[in-house]
Amino acid sequence: MTQPLQPHRGRLSSLLAVAAALALVLPVGAAAQDGTVTGSVTAATTGEPINGTQITIMDTQLGGLSNVNGRFLITRVPPGTYTIQAVHVGFGTQTEDVTVTAGGSATVEFRMEVSAVDLDEIIVTGTAGAVERRKLGVSAASLNVSDIQETIPLDGFSQALEGRIPGVRSIGSVGGVGASRVLTVRGMDSFSLGQRPVIYIDGIRVDALGREWGSSAGGQTTCCAFSGGSGEDRLSDLNPDEIERVEVLKGPAAATLYGSEASGGVIQVFTKRGRNNSPANFTFEVGAGFNRHRANFPTSLRSNFRGEDGTVALDPNESLIENGLINTYSLTVDGGGENVTYFVSGGFSFEEGSIKPNDQKRANLRVNLNWTAGENLTVGVTSSYVRNRVYALQSGNNWLGIYTNALLTNPNNASVDEPYGGGLDVNVEDAQAIKTYSDADRFQGSVQLNYNPRPWFHHRATLGLDAVNDQKSRNLPFGRHYTYIGTLGERNIGYRNIRNFTLDYTGNLDYTLPFAGNIGGSFAFGTQGYWEIGSLSMATGKDFAGEGVTTVSGAARNFGGESFSEEINLGFFGQNRFDIGDDLFVTAAVRVDGNSAFGKNYGFQVYPKADMAYNLNEDMLPGFISSAKLRGAVGMGGKAPGAFAQFQTYVPSTVLEDLAGVAPSNPGNDLLEPETKVEYEAGLDLGLMDDRIGIDATYWHATTNNALLGIALPPSEGFGSSQQRNTGKILNRGVELSVNSTIIDRSDFSWSTGINYEWNYNEILDLGETAVADSLPIYQGTELTGWTQHTRLGGLWEGFPIVEIIRRGILGWDPTKREHIRSVYSYYQGQAFPDHLASLNTHFSVGRSLRVAVQFRGEWGASMVNSDRGYGVRQLAYDEYLMHLGPNGERTPAADSVLNWHRLAYPVDSRDNIRLQEVSVSYTLPESLTSMAGLQRSTLTLSGYNLHWWDNCNCPDPNQLYQGGRDYASSPFLGLPQPRQFKLTFKTRF
Amino acid sequence: MNGSKTKGWATALVAVLALGACESLLTVQDPQRYTADDLDTALPAVANGVEGAIHSVMDGFVTYQALLADVYQHTGTWGGYDEVDHGRFQYGTSPMDGTHNAWLRANWFAMDAEERFKNVLGESEAASSPMTAQVRLGGAFADLYMGLTFCESVGQPSGPAITDMDALRQAVQEFTNAMQTAQSAGRSDYAMAAQAGRAQANLLLGDLTAAAADASAIGDGYSYEAVFNQSSNNSVVLLTTKNFNEAAGLLHKWWDQIDISDDPGFMRDPWTDEYDMRLPVYFDGEVATDNETPHYSQWKYNGLTDNIPMVHSDLMRLIEAEAAMSAGDYAGATAILNNLRDAVGLAPFETPTDQGMMMDYLLSERFAELFMEGQRAADLYRFGLTRQIFDALDDDEREGSDRPTKFTMTDSEPLYNDNIDDDLTKRCAPKT
Predict the structure, then answer these.
(1) How much is the ipTM here?
(2) pTM for the whole thing?
């Protein structure tokens, strides 16, 4: 049921009043003879209104979005006959012809049929202008986060990407709230540079650090990592309620126009905007729930043992795991007049971890305004402020870790003072008394100008800033015992300031060739630059006189550290796309980049690209194929070296009796180049059964040339760091497949399913001239039966993946010596990252009220050096050892055998797993009920996240990484697993 | 359209000009590191850096030498300590690689610094500069410790492998050069450290006459120590002592000899059962980090900035005693040892009549005087006692047979140095 558009009712907030005033103060005069186009958009089968449908009056620059009731209104339409187009992802594009009379209103109703094919979807990232998907020769992915939020309330931006786009690996790898997550696109393409894709928000390059930074400034004069290795994830600053959609470019074939940062892919987030001629639409959401770990820590036998004083040892499964409360509140409002639109949102969330103390408080405020300043000019302004405070959990490879100290203790040493058992010398209670905070303030703002002096000539300029101030602190209170630190307490503080300035201009010229009427196209040119400045400063105070003082300066000994980085990139590009008829689209482009990190003798880097899309005519297709697009692309992208890697440097140090000293550090390289990655891909987008089944298949092949390798010099040559040289070559290739289908689509029941699969192959092709010949043994049982020849450089081996596991292992048992036989040589035991990933997303709707969504996700092919297991046994702490002890805790031959195994080698275990990732049940309250309260569409959603997993890893969670989202992190080492999450959410509109 | 064309050309022109201006736009500086040119204005820091680089890894040297010898056992969870304690490491897996790398780098920096001093100060001034003496001393100590610790090393940047004896011979020459420069520069402290170092190098080379001659020039009370500070802590304390990470503790063979009635306790002198103040030990009855082993913590160093003696007068006296013993002068040797014992209140030895007893006295005094100074493993090696000592432990996990007696060369050097073969079978690995 649709509702007529209502005039402004005067119930807006003061902020809205300002926006509305702007709309009045800054009008663009409408010609008196113009008319309007109005109408509604609904789903054909259910009659449900469809929010956010893009309505376009073809061959004009007029258009708008449908609102939550499916209604739209387009004003200032000159009289005439027009084709109106409605585009919404998940539905087939529809067009209707209307005639607009002077001062009149034309009405058009769109009844949208579901479709698994979205060839009319507009993509703007990396395309030098808005382009329909049918014209793209690359596999750009798009995700409508706003729609996903209607089904499952997302905990964060990264969750939106999880299991939804083949080629994008977004997983939670640490348990603390606010902690960093893994985010990579199409495998590992560099030996040493960041793997995380570049993130843009509304055209602005933003800080997306996903690792701890505590130890990167000041070295040992300050402290270790603040929270044990994972750190916070700056992507957790984003409020998912502000996000409209996300576009993902998976590699240089699609992202060439991003030049020296295109290699690892580009993700662009688009925040929500208001709608012209729309009253204020308020959306309020409140959620409550809890995080809770699975009780599968390998310590369930603990309570069978007791210490000398009779204390029964605590099992962390029972005593450490708690419910961590979740509360979220969000209020958004959007709307607009003829000339000004607004979107304003405010949100607050509080979330506790399941192991405490650990919580996150986040407050977001965003104001997005769009002003139609003239017939040819629009101005967009975005601004957001975030305060994100994480009370971080001490975990990971960390003597102060709560989880660490609870798990690695010997239950036979349990005592009243140390109920988990003795051992690591930090009592769990003392570890829990540590206060570790990350408190970030963040501002993002941008101004975007769109100037269209002619219908065929468009200019877009964006200027923006992302400013992050992250203050970290850690306080180890006086009077408690902390191994290295002693009992006098310690205070660590750190400040990380990042400023990212972005400047972007694109000119776009549409044309039709005079000599070939069916050949037109678009020529684009522009420039893009960023300037990133980062500074870290840290201070530590050691030894307090007593309780009560917790400032660094209040401690007896003070230390400080500081570091700085600066990177400037400037690029120019030109691109031409030929539109040959309505079927064939051919694009060629080139970008030229200069970057401050390139060696001073290097110069500029040129990145070319070309792609082609061919949409097969229906006449050429068999009946069951409703649409088909063939596409192919080749492109080059880059990755700039570290900001100061080109310089030969000597590091200052404090030596002898606190004297100034220096030591050789980085040998430098004047010829440093960006890593360049050439990627080609070919794919097929198919629509079957009237587009009810959509298939998107892509084969891609990428070679990273000039990969930076740290070429270690012989220690006798003095420099401690490796010399960065562009000598490596890495192959990545893979297959991505998406199958989306609407299996049943009736007014009372619908069922749709999407399957994503990716295969990713990673191989080191070349390690440069300094690599040496080496061999790896072939063992059969305990026998060494041969060798395979390889080339290696340090821990990298040609022919193997970038992060492989080559180490000594246990081959068998020597009954004479009564000990295990360890291999003399290291041998290949697996790779650290998965090569097969798959997900299943399925949705059911029952009537118009009940919706169910389920996601399963799986990964295969990865292994881990299970250091947790090894340490747990060595510490006489894990069930694997305890289960072999005698009834009174006495050692047995079997227990000794297990201990001997783990003292000789770390086990290598599989990370293969299948995970029930998301389940949500949404119920839309009857209108009869909500209207009584003056509310519109209101839903109640019960959801669960990370609910269960099936694995064979001999660990709590095969996704565990103690350094969270750090790019090359491969060790689980006591990284707290991610908890399960349960949440109830109420969302309403008014 | 003409106007648009003009605008288009203007835009293109601006783009070209912008490209031309990029070079200066794209220039950045690293304010947190020195460049090679900067160092010409920081010569004292260069000299300090060389000497400090030698000192800064003496703690790791002491800990691993103690684990290799019969001083320490592994009581934590770290694989590196475990491997050395049980004698399992081999070329390519030795945890001492980092220490070897540090000394090799310090050697290069010493040579580079000498050249820099010549370039900046001029040859003549550099030849008599205390800074030259300082870096020569640093380079000489690097060679001394590499010869003492590793079965082979590298004498020159990217040079071929040299034996431990060659490294020690090189050390002797470098100490001689350092002495001469220090004397020219009027730095008696550097000169004395160099002479004491040369005594130690000659001792290890077996040239006891030369060693004793140098040792006799070092008066009582002298000590040249690896200096630790708040920025560079003594990791023997940080990683192996009570109240810090208890990843290693005294080997079980010493436990019965430890008296903990005082805080801290002391080992008893094996000959008189008296407290030996040179062997302080802390034990409170608790187990170490491995949740199992009683942690007997050395207490010679118990503060994070405690220095580690490198060469000192007591070491010189022991060298003199060894030289006397070697010459058959047991009375002279015993007298020197008794002076050392008297200084800590221990009853004197009677002059032995046979070499075996004399050797036992010497070794016992070297153990006590040089406790936790990294010398015990070298003593077992040069006297060929490793197997005998470890067999006597009657410990299945620490058998004497096949136990390494020295550390293998760092694998970083052969891996990147074309003059050395990176092959496990080509690299030295002395075992019992």
Answers:
(1) 0.91
(2) 0.87
